[in-house]
């Protein structure tokens, strides 16, 4: 019983949060991953979303620069 309480109280790491956010950008998530999302720290989710957004925008700018340069 104590193990279940400790598992519910334990928060996921920032890396796990980043992985969940990146999968959410694609819109694909397994049910088991979705169930684990309840353990994510909301602050980490916001930070990971901003980082993912910046990476996405940077990739788009680089691709556009490469295409326009040719």
Describe the model.
This protein is mainly alpha-helical and 70 residues long. The chain has one domain. Helix content is 79%, strand content 0%. The chain contains four helices and no strands. The chain has helices at 2-9, 14-26, 31-36, 42-69. Helix 2 (14-26) crosses helix 4 (42-69). The longest helix has 28 residues, at 42-69. The model has no long low-confidence stretch (mean pLDDT 82).
Structural class: mainly alpha
Name the beta content range.
under 5%
Quaternary structure of the protein: single chain
Q: Which regions have little confidence, pLDDT < 50, spanning 5+ residues?
A: none
Overall form: elongated
Largest sheet: none
Question: What pattern of helices and strands is seen along the backbone?
Answer: HHHH
The overall number of domains is: 1
